């Protein structure tokens, strides 16, 4: 008998409660946690390479011909020329074609090392135990900025026997800590004389004005000016050394950022619901029930009489049961806090799917005092 059943799972909400709401608003942050310096950014690097030393888990040459082609090209660069008959029938099982990615941090200098991520692009089943061969990593301009090579660290593993298999995490991607040497620097506008721009992580007119005000009170009025909700322009010294000291002083200044907006974030694909600390409700009543559907199927055998004509047949028989629980009515007073909402919804056993439907209905009714964002 096969049974399909829709089950209810308990709702788990993570809440952070504070002694008083104004304490959250009065929490100060350093400027370094709120802004980045304009033009100072990391850059993405990418490269194509080969991973060797796999225990028979590499690409299948008949289905992934570019792996064998890349291996033959590497042999030629190393001075190894295989006969045409051997090259045509070459089918290594311990080699895999991979894409190597990395982030080049700002101010990285030649000789420094960065972490790289290695991902299979063929039909290799696992990269565990493999070694990445020398792979140039290029930027968006086509220039080589780093060279990667080393032994892979793969967090996943798998096993199979007699048609049964089991796997934990991903076995076709791994990392090489400090696996690439930086070969070229990326120029930025930090060394150029003139004003510098502080770009806010979260644009806010209030936070931008407060940052400019704190800088002017500490370093002199006229030094900083908030241009808009996302940029604060500061008049920095001309010499590089003085600019470093100047930015160091700014980074360590304390600023009280604007109180975050009341927001509810919903991820309908995973059933995740996150409610911000400033979410409140107006007066409303909520009634929500649940529906449980059970589909069962069993097989009956029909046999003819011992001396009668006929054949033995199997007859499937299915049954469908539908159960709907009574709706529970919840009353919320105006200005009710997030903590009270969480307690009430947990008390009735609301699942994440139920909570999503309830919050969307509250927003449509005008009772949810928060922005509803679906990701």
TrEMBL record:
Native source organism of the sequence: Acidithiobacillus ferrianus
Location in the cell: Bacterial flagellum basal body
Keyword set, alphabetical order: Bacterial flagellum, Cell projection, Cilium, Flagellum, Signal
A single GO cellular-component term on record: bacterial-type flagellum basal body, distal rod, P ring
Main location: other
GO MF entries: structural molecule activity
Protein task: Assembles around the rod to form the L-ring and probably protects the motor/basal body from shearing forces during rotation.
Keyword Signal appears in the UniProt entry: yes
Name this polypeptide is given: Flagellar P-ring protein
Binding partners and assembly: The basal body constitutes a major portion of the flagellar organelle and consists of four rings (L,P,S, and M) mounted on a central rod.
GO biological process, one term: bacterial-type flagellum-dependent cell motility
Keyword Phosphoprotein set for record: no
Family: Belongs to the FlgI family.
Signal sequence extent: 1-28
InterPro entries per the UniProt record, alphabetical: Flag_FlgI (IPR001782)
Gene giving rise to this polypeptide: flgI
